[in-house]
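Example 5.3 — Manganese transport regulator
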Amino acid sequence: MTEDYLTIIWKTQEWPRDPVSTTEIASILSVTPSSVSANLKKLAREGLIDYEPYGRIDLTPAGREIAVTVVRRHRVLETYLVECLGLSWDEVHGEADALEHAVSDLVLNRMDDLLGNPAFDPHGDPIPRADGTVERVDATRLTEAQTDSRVLVVRISDREPTILRYLEARAISIGTRLRVESRDVEAGSLSVRRASAADGCEEPVDVATGAARAVWVSVDSPG
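Solution (predicted structure tokens):
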């Protein structure tokens, strides 16, 4: 329970967004908000979070250390499962969840070395280093990108495997270059042009707003 709560709080603060709420944590863990509140109070008493009911939830240094350790395990495992075992990016989240508490530091570090110590996992999330440092990325949601801007996909949330499959079917993944064309609020979609990796030609693609919110982009600087 402790590690689950701490990693959820850490992940929600990793990318720019509103502070995490008890309701959101309850939704992620499929428990009641009252249960979340009780557990948050317990974590606060243990010195792992700073928390006041209805206030902001923040990790203490001790809580952050635990969260970063678990996140590192999870993301190294996800990367290993994709790169070495050939699993697809929509399959690995649950598998890594099952493995992250069982793998020793020795095995995890050997996996990391075998992979070449990658800075990011298959979904574009930074992999914390063994010393706890984390590479930060300046990015925003695709839904917030300006019209006619050229952007580079740098991260896709792995919370919903169906969204990963939806985007993969539209050839949108980490490293894809897009140009934002327009938004259709009534239809709930975003029109973009996707640059072909082969020749750079642009192809029109419509992306549902819900899926576009899972995509994080940075300003593209070709070449």
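Remark. The helical segments are 2-14, 22-29, 33-45, 61-83, 92-99, 105-115, 161-169, 209-212.
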